[in-house]
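Supplementary Methods. Inverse-folding protocol.

Structures were first reduced to a discrete structure-token string of length 164. This string, shown here, constituted the complete conditioning input.
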């Protein structure tokens, strides 16, 4: 009995097409090939380049520290809710620090490259999942995916608590 054959779904449906571990090995090998293609793509190389640029940029590191300091202060205020006397000031400082961080070219380019790689990975994941079944859910970093909000007839797994 193979690993896949031992899965409850395979047994429930009497799926004899999953006869050997060789199937799983072939799938894993192809997945590693795909991973290597993505890893060595121009998009990923761009991402790595800008990630290193951010790490080596004194200005970027200074702005990141300022942003993290403002964020920590806001988190402390947020523990007590919006009625904390410094809540609005702390929130404004976070927005200001974030805006200053966005002024750094390396940070802007890194974020754009990160977004491009994220889109590529999402599209590949969706292609793979939907080649098996259109109903398979694909994990996504997008907090507001199109067509999946509770009001649009999509799934109610958006985490907004609005369904129920």
């Amino acid at each position: 009995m193979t690993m896949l054959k031992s899965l409850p779904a395979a047994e429930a449906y009497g799926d004899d097409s999953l006869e050997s571990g060789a199937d799983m090995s072939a799938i894993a090998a192809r997945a590693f090939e795909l991973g290597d293609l993505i890893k060595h793509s121009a998009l990923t190389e761009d991402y790595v380049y800008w990630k290193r640029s951010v790490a080596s940029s004194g200005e970027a590191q200074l702005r990141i520290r300022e942003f993290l300091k403002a964020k920590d202060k806001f988190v402390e205020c947020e523990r007590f809710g919006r009625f904390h006397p410094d809540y609005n000031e702390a929130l404004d400082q976070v927005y200001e620090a974030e805006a200053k961080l966005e002024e750094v070219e390396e940070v802007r380019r890194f974020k754009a490259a990160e977004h491009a790689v994220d889109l590529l990975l999402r599209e590949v994941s969706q292609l793979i999942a939907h080649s098996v079944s259109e109903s398979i859910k694909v994990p996504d970093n997008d907090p507001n995916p199109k067509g999946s909000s509770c009001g649009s007839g999509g799934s109610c797994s958006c985490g907004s608590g609005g369904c129920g």
